[in-house]
Amino acid sequence: MNNLLKFISIFFLFTLGGSCKTRNKDLPNIIIIYTDDLGYGDVAPFAPKNEITPNLAKLADEGVTLTNFYVASSVCSPSRASLLTGSYPVRVGIPRVLAPHGIPWAEDIWRNGLNPKEETLAELLKEVGYKTTLIGKWHLGHAKEQLPTKHGFDNFFGIPYSNDMIPSKNQVYPPLPLIENEEIIEENPDQRFFTNRFTKKAIEFISNNTNSPFFILLTHPLPHVPLSTSPEFENKTLEGIYNDVIHEIDWSVGQIRKKLQEFELEKNTILIFTSDNGPWLAYQTHAGSAGILREGKNTAFDGGHKVPFLISWPNQLPKGKKLDGLVTNMDLLPTLVAWAGGNKPRFEIDGLSLRDYLEGTSDHSLRKEFLYFHNENLRGIRDERYKLLLPHRYQKPAGNSIDPGQQDRFVIDSIPLSLFDLWEDPGERNDIAEDLPEKVKELQQRMEKEYQKIISGKRPSGIYEGPEPPTGKLWIENY
């Protein structure tokens, strides 16, 4: 009888206990803070902003700064698709910004979302025991079956698309919903408290998951217009509302680090700070700065694609190091999954694991080229030093907006086939295509080869097949 009881005890220990997730203390926590429309010249150490962004300046001192970090698109939805899938947006069927129904420029794009068959960063981390949450802006499909909870996130607290897609800007937009998991809990929430509320939600998640490795994707809707801050940050910098907004985002970084320290989690937490794309320059005083880079959001120039990037992991990464190698947001998925001991996606991706480069065991980034797209259109390529742009037309602000915070009118400019030496000319001012015809030819060949690899492996987006919601509604009744 005693042997039988012993057998039963061992049986339950292995069958029940083995199915329970307990914290693997070797697995790092992962927090990505993804801002919206933040420019390369907006925060320390990329610009002289130490007083406005002291927490980011400190993060740079204690972590690794990447000076050549690129996002795969210079607009919102495609950039986020690349972050989560490790792929160029055109490969995963999200090359354009998504929007609710009823907006003429969106046509049927409102039905699109990230394909549920894609293996996201959140899903790959869940497979090895991570608790996952997305807090803030999603913008990868707003039907219920397209929300973050369908893409590997245990929880979602935030808005389904950009904070300017609101009835006060265009009456065709439905009320902006604040969603918890899959339920609308508020409509048109007070945006002044977005940064504060989303930060507190992230802190709450940390507090509730100290015994499990966790992944937090904190996607601040700001500094995308319309700009606002909580009352305690209004006019705090005395340098305009944009800097007040940046100052509050910096406060958010400080609060999260403080909570990690409180639970003694900071040393084994990978903390990343970056942006989805460059500044929306058409909003002038309510927009950020690309620094010395050319143009901004919604262009193929580096002002739209090259963004600030800081990473800290005291247990594993060097302190106060600056790396100049080429890295993209697509590379984060394979790198983070490798650190977490997870499996590679079944589908082909474009990201490369940069684990050795970031840890300092390799002096060179594995990434040797990066393709520039605008929507579905190929615009150019860069290698480690040179950038080739194909002839194309592009929009830029006219520069004569009268009212602060109002969108400037656009003018159309064009660029011929152009070659730039980004080491000597990061602002893309001096076209040297005629001086280096062999380099132009080489990059054209490499660009076509890489482009064909992507196009031949294109996968569809996810499509909402339900009826169109009535005017003024995000979802149909009882959906």
From TrEMBL:
GO terms for molecular function: arylsulfatase activity; metal ion binding. PROSITE patterns: PROKAR_LIPOPROTEIN, SULFATASE_1, SULFATASE_2. This is N-acetylgalactosamine-6-sulfatase. Belongs to the sulfatase family. Gene3D superfamilies: 3.30.1120.10, Alkaline Phosphatase, subunit A. The lineage of its organism: Bacteria, Pseudomonadati, Bacteroidota, Cytophagia, Cytophagales. It comes from Algoriphagus formosus. Residues 28-341 form the Sulfatase N-terminal domain. Pfam families: Sulfatase.
